Amino acid sequence: MNKTKSNILMAAIEVVSKKGYHPATMDEIAKEANVAKGTLYYYFESKESIFNDMIDSGISMIREEILEKIKVTEDSMQQLRIITRAILTLVFERRNLFKIIISQLWGEDIRQIELRKKMNEVMDFIEAYIINCVEDGYFEAANTRLKAFNYFGAMMTTAVYYLNLEEPIDHASETMIEEILSQL
Amino acid sequence: MNKTKSNILMAAIEVVSKKGYHPATMDEIAKEANVAKGTLYYYFESKESIFNDMIDSGISMIREEILEKIKVTEDSMQQLRIITRAILTLVFERRNLFKIIISQLWGEDIRQIELRKKMNEVMDFIEAYIINCVEDGYFEAANTRLKAFNYFGAMMTTAVYYLNLEEPIDHASETMIEEILSQL
Amino acid sequence: MNKTKSNILMAAIEVVSKKGYHPATMDEIAKEANVAKGTLYYYFESKESIFNDMIDSGISMIREEILEKIKVTEDSMQQLRIITRAILTLVFERRNLFKIIISQLWGEDIRQIELRKKMNEVMDFIEAYIINCVEDGYFEAANTRLKAFNYFGAMMTTAVYYLNLEEPIDHASETMIEEILSQL
Amino acid sequence: MNKTKSNILMAAIEVVSKKGYHPATMDEIAKEANVAKGTLYYYFESKESIFNDMIDSGISMIREEILEKIKVTEDSMQQLRIITRAILTLVFERRNLFKIIISQLWGEDIRQIELRKKMNEVMDFIEAYIINCVEDGYFEAANTRLKAFNYFGAMMTTAVYYLNLEEPIDHASETMIEEILSQL
DNA sequence: AATGAATGAGATTTCATTCAT
DNA sequence: TATGAATGAAATCTCATTCAT
Lengths: 184, 184, 184, 184
Prior knowledge:
The structure is a homotetramer of 184-residue chains. Chain A is 74% helix and 0% strand. Chain A has helices at 3-19, 26-33, 37-43, 47-69, 76-93, 95-103, 110-135, 144-163, 174-182. Chain A is elongated and about 55 Å long. At the A-B interface, helix 1, helix 6 and helix 8 of A face helix 1, helix 6 and helix 8 of B.
């Protein structure tokens, strides 16, 4: 991607994660990106489209990262462990982006409805691996969709917990991973 | 509380849950409440204060509801079970308010920081019961704060899952309760 | 109509006739009307809707004025003479509004296409009276639509001519009327 | 003229006639001309100067075309007939340019005031031929300036009428010419 | 000769808030 | 107690123009 464009995107993540979508102004994003306001509109159609690009690049980053890392094993439980570690690491490393995603999951704006659709696809992706684990006998057969939700929710709340600690850790500890998987 | 005032509060919950805090305008809230815009300012100082009242009355409602219901038993595990059922029921019955709470937990607006403080108090409240359970030997001793977080997160994700089903259930099933408690 | 609203409409005619639709800013209209910019939006949805109201009230004014005046006679030629006098008088009295109408007849903006539709209805109206004259033997049968166009065009160019004179006259002279009718 | 430059001028006529002066953007003109936006500024000082060049080349084209064609006769009435045919033909062939001229005659922008001056020169030119006709006894002596206005106005309205027909004709018919001249 | 990324002044529009009634 | 006309600060967005290449 063009350097200025990705620069703007990073600035937007920074500002939006701090302020939320609406209070984050184009002026602030421009200032943070060290470009003129007009430049934002040279690269993006609207504030909404900056938001969408932000989310899309975030989600595809997760997917690519995970797909790359699970190649090393064929064992379904091992794969789920790898996915967990990968997502937790990403949540820590790109906490601002995740804050935005979580806070925008609610509400009936097109922006928010679209985001929910995208997150449902992420759920599909995770559920597929949980199904593999069930088929391989690691978990007992059950509502795998709900399990995927709980898995994701557990990751989020764990992350939120650690993110709020005074001395935030910046990596996914093995303890956290086991804690989350034990809930499945 | 004055009837007009609670009327406005209900209208605000309706509109804010649908649109989010910022896109919900005072005009819309007034229209939904069937009062003139000026009336909002007769009863509330500002939009922000409507929001705060909304949250405060929601949270104290939870607390009162729970304190009332757990009276029937002294057994800590029974009490946690009752709390779970109560919260789940409230989440279903007042889903709009909870949507607002969850979506406003993030970000650095005064409004949002204040909300997080209030939710931390709710966590204290829940943690206290989890500690009782640990002391009574129901769970093994561990990070009870994280347990409280996970417990609350599990409830939220479970609720979100069921709220998104085609045929939403409108009560807390015993299955859900056991599912959540088993994760502790 | 509300006083403030008609006040804004008059200010808009003043400014738009001087500057044209696009260069006329909402700031200037507000200043001319002695109200705050927000007030414009309290009474009108948009700049476009101010324009539309401006045109609509102008056109219905023409129609009402004419319908009122032609009541006095049943003779078709007399009626056409009355219409001519009425339109010319209006063009002189409300020259600013007519300037706007003429300048906005061209182009493919929705605003302009709508205006052309409205002016076509005015043409229908005029043509009807020309047809009466033809039927009564005042003119020889011919393309009455073209006659209506020419009639209107003649009125406009005559008006433009007199409006550009150093010492503008402010009424429709009988000479002008006969000049225009002689062209039919 | 340089090919790229005349290319830009044609593109500008196309876009401005469709949209009007202000809504026509330099971006659109550049796109229509298949050049980069910077190229517009390589050949023209500003948007305003593109407009002026557009008009000037249009007007001098009329003048040259007419001066060329009236050479064939010395009879003043014949010359006026030739002028009428020439202008009507041009109006049909370059209708977009004429649309722009007519729509920009109104208003007090420098651009528009300049255009009116130029059109007044065209009127001088036409009036001169009408005076010749009067002197040769073809019309009775009268306000020749007004006659020139009416003559031009008649041509415009006739043109507008035929341009709006379902099946537009693309040439000046002899009927139209006689119709216009008979009004003098 | 030609480009297109970058700009910033200025446009339209929104909306929480005020205040006279 | 309740109203709603009026406000103005601040938001998003547009676009003619510049300039380094």
